[in-house]
Specification:
With 455 residues, the protein is of the alpha/beta class. The chain is built from 15 helices and 14 strands. It folds into 2 domains: 191 residues, 3-Layer(aba) Sandwich (Rossmann fold); 218 residues, NAD(P)-binding Rossmann-like Domain (Rossmann fold, 3-Layer(aba) Sandwich). It has a 6-stranded parallel β-sheet with strand order 3-2-1-4-5-6, sandwiched between helices. A 6-stranded parallel β-sheet has the order 11-10-9-12-13-14, sandwiched between helices. A two-stranded parallel sheet has the order 7-8. β4, α4 and β5 form a beta-alpha-beta unit. The structure holds nicotinamide-adenine-dinucleotide (NAD) and uridine-5'-diphosphate-glucose (UPG). The site of uridine-5'-diphosphate-glucose (UPG) has 22 residues, from α8. One of its GO terms (molecular function) is NAD binding. It comes from Amycolatopsis camponoti. This is UDP-glucose 6-dehydrogenase. Keywords: NAD, Oxidoreductase.
């Protein structure tokens, strides 16, 4: 393998993982971020996101001299003795006006570095960008010698390092095949299937994949609703669906709705892209609508648990919310369904106190009270609502919680808890797509082979 000189611009979930993992593969990487405090912390080996293995890779790469840190994107090209050959753009592309991806930061960075890029280098977009962005970057650069390549990233938060080093596939697209191959060669040691294609196809693969995942989740949330109406159990239904290898067991867990920094913005951006191509992408529209409805459905469930009616008043009702991050294993609160449900509960007049193992009570990003543990959050609560599937919630002392609350009711929007454990502690339990039970259900059982259901 040839070790390459690489620059990474933006050191968030994607950029930091990219930089640290490429360094672990033997490449020399200089990481640039405009957030000076973050760069100072990284220089000291401090990683401020919750990602297993990332801090170790950062420390190893820094100690080996293969990872260095700068604050100006342009300064990334002045490091080391050999010129930077490949430059990754890993800056944010948040949801902008009308649901379009906001390319303001990305374009500003391209403008900042266009004259500073070393001759004959490759500029790679790893940020998620709409189809046509590669062509736009080529125009903005106005440099014949610099090739533009799309290399979308598919890592998940909470398993970012693992996903980067064990990818299902690598996608590289460009009008310049030689440049695409140079980028693909960076990952050669990973032995992953590699799709070499044109720029627009690579850009679309990213959106098409994320929107497919979002549709799968909205479908499963709709199946869960149907289960409730006809008396079926979604846990057994999805297990039975998932053994079909064309469907698979993963991404079949119903919940309070899908969220995070990617699926919501990417579904919106794909809708806008389709719209601009005069195509009404009704499936994606339905997935988004089903998701917003899911938040409201969770509030109705809570009303039912607390007042006995799906339309009962939540005014002055005290609710303990367990889980604020958009899924377990991350500290990311961006577009979290928990926050969407919490906002609806507050609008309905409820008094909410939350606990999340990854969110500090001193965190001032949140418009609600955060307790330092589940027992404090549950004090005098009319119901406990599980919103994020942190495994530690299963291990809570439920009899102790029963002694803290005003009414022993649990609404489990992730089907995380064992209803029989709760029943023993005196709680009523309601989940999503499952009959409300006091005892463990018989469950779908596999008579031969072994169950492999997982997210
Ligand atoms: N988070 C994910 O799981 C994930 C996965 C795949 C793809 N993506 C895509 O990757 C991109 C980045 O996402 P993220 O979650 O890593 O974002 P992030 O917000 O975690 O990190 C972005 C980083 O860019 C830095 N930055 C902002 N402006 C800059 C500038 N002008 N110069 C240098 N640095 C600058 C910020 O300080 C921050 O450290 C987005 O397009 C996103 O859609 C994200
Ligand atoms: O069975 C499931 C699986 C997920 N979710 C929810 O779906 C959302 C998204 O989860 P996940 O996809 O694991 O989160 P991300 O880390 O945002 O990863 C997605 O978005 C990234 C950014 O584009 C992509 O790189 C990843 O491939 C893609 O999975 C979260 O709210 C989860 O709680 C469920 O409700 N049920």
């Amino acid at each position: 393998m040839f070790a390459r000189n690489v620059a990474v611009i933006g050191t968030g979930y994607v950029g930091l993982t990219t930089g640290a993992c490429l360094a672990s593969l033997g490449h020399s990487v200089v990481c640039a971020d405009s957030d000076r405090d973050k760069v100072d912390r990284l220089r000291k080996g401090q990683v401020d996101i919750l990602e297993p293995e990332l801090a170790d890779l950062v420390a190893d790469g820094t100690a080996a001299g293969r990872l260095t840190w700068v604050t100006e994107a342009g300064a990334a090209f002045e490091q080391g003795t050999r010129p930077v050959e490949i430059v990754f753009l890993c800056v944010p592309t948040p949801m902008g006006a009308g649901g379009l991806a906001d390319l303001g930061v990305l374009e500003a960075v391209v403008d900042e570095i266009r004259t500073l890029l070393p001759p004959d280098c490759v500029l790679v977009t790893k940020s998620t960008v709409p189809v046509g962005t590669g062509d736009r970057i080529t125009q903005l650069l106005d440099r014949e010698d610099v090739a533009v390549v799309s290399n979308p990233e598919f890592l998940r938060e909470g398993t970012a390092v693992h996903d980067f080093l064990h990818p299902d596939r690598i996608v590289v697209g460009s009008a310049r095949q030689d440049a695409a191959e140079r980028v693909a060669a960076l990952y050669a040691r990973l032995g992953a299937p590699t799709v070499l294609t044109d720029g627009p196809s690579a850009e679309l693969i990213k959106y098409a994949a994320n929107c497919f995942l979002a549709m799968k989740l909205s479908y499963v949330n709709a199946v869960a609703e149907l289960c409730e109406r006809v008396g079926a159990d979604v846990v057994d239904v999805t297990e039975g669906m998932g053994y079909d290898r064309r469907i698979g067991q993963k991404f079949l867990s119903p919940g309070p709705g899908w969220g995070g920094s990617c699926l919501p913005k990417d579904t919106s951006a794909l809708l806008q892209l389709a719209d601009s191509a005069d195509f009404e992408f009704r499936l994606v529209r339905a997935a988004i609508d089903t998701n917003s409805r899911q938040h409201k459905r969770m509030v109705d469930k809570i009303r039912l648990a607390v007042t006995g009616s799906r339309t009962g008043s939540l005014s002055k009702v005290k609710l303990a919310l367990l889980g604020l991050t958009f899924k377990a294993g991350t500290d990311d609160l961006r577009d979290s369904p928990s926050l969407a449900v919490a906002a609806l509960l507050r609008q309905a007049g409820a008094d909410v106190v939350a606990f999340d193992p990854a969110v500090s009570p001193a965190d001032d990003r949140l418009p609600l009270a955060v307790a330092s543990d589940a027992y404090q959050a549950a004090a005098d609560a009319d119901a406990i609502v599980v919103l994020t599937e942190w495994p530690e919630f299963r291990r809570l002392d439920w009899p102790r919680l029963a002694a803290c609350v005003r009414t022993p009711a649990v609404v489990d929007t992730r089907n995380l808890l064992d209803p029989s454990v709760l029943a023993q502690a005196g709680f009523t339990w309601s989940g999503v797509g499952r009959p409300a039970r006091a005892e463990s259900p018989p469950g779908g059982h596999l008579l031969t082979g072994s169950a492999t259901a997982s997210r």
